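Onboarding guide, step 5: your first structure request.
Type a short instruction followed by the sequence, for example:

Predict the 3D structure of this protein.
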Amino acid sequence: MRLVMLVSRHQPNTNKHMFHSDQGTQYSSKVFIDYCNKNNITQSMSRRGNCWDNAVMERFFRSLKTERLNYQSFANHSEVVQNVEGYIYLYNYKRIHSAIGYLACYTL
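The system replies with structure tokens like these:
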């Protein structure tokens, strides 16, 4: 789980960390809620059936699918993970974004 990796890397000790998700059962389970509480992570959830609450992430996943994943085949799970992680790096540090004046995030 990526959240476990984040916690082990950054060791949050304040309530300044937030995890935003939809209302999936995995995120509303007692085990997950207890994990977040134990690690000082505030949970944020979109309203049921309202994609606009999470428009930024919805847009990211649309871009991931259309720019990177559609029409590709992968030999195994690690190939998918490597491909998605590469796209996340590109998206966050190299790709230009209209919302910030067609700059890449690393130039800010």
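Each response can be followed by summary notes, for example: Residues 97 and 103 are 6 Å apart (CA to CA).
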